[in-house]
Write a structure and sequence with these properties.
Layout (H helix, E strand, L loop, with lengths): L30 H16 L1 H9 L9 H21 L6
């Protein structure tokens, strides 16, 4: 779509989007279950077949703790909120 401006041309020179996938459970999920699921998911992410499947989608697996994933979500929400407010973006 050559007629569309790039994000830099539109006034957002440092604009960057990263996509991620993750598992989210209920807030009351017992810590032991959270830790077990996290360990099993991280083990799966380390499997060569999983890495290869993700690579075919231009994705990279990143093992993380539940706390690190929570920080990622919070940072994403804060960044998008700031972008919308700072630029008075409205739904049309």
């Amino acid at each position: 779509m050559p007629q569309l401006a790039t994000t830099a041309e539109a006034g957002f020179p440092n604009f960057r989007i990263e996509f991620w996938w993750g598992f989210i459970g209920q807030s009351q999920l017992p810590r032991a279950i959270v830790e077990r699921l996290n360990a099993e998911i991280n083990t799966l992410l380390a499997e060569p077949d999983t890495k290869a499947a993700l690579a075919r989608e231009a994705a990279v697996s990143t093992a993380a703790t539940p706390e690190a994933f929570g920080r990622l979500i919070a940072a994403d929400v804060a960044g998008w909120t700031r972008l919308v407010k700072d630029n008075a973006i409205q739904v049309e």
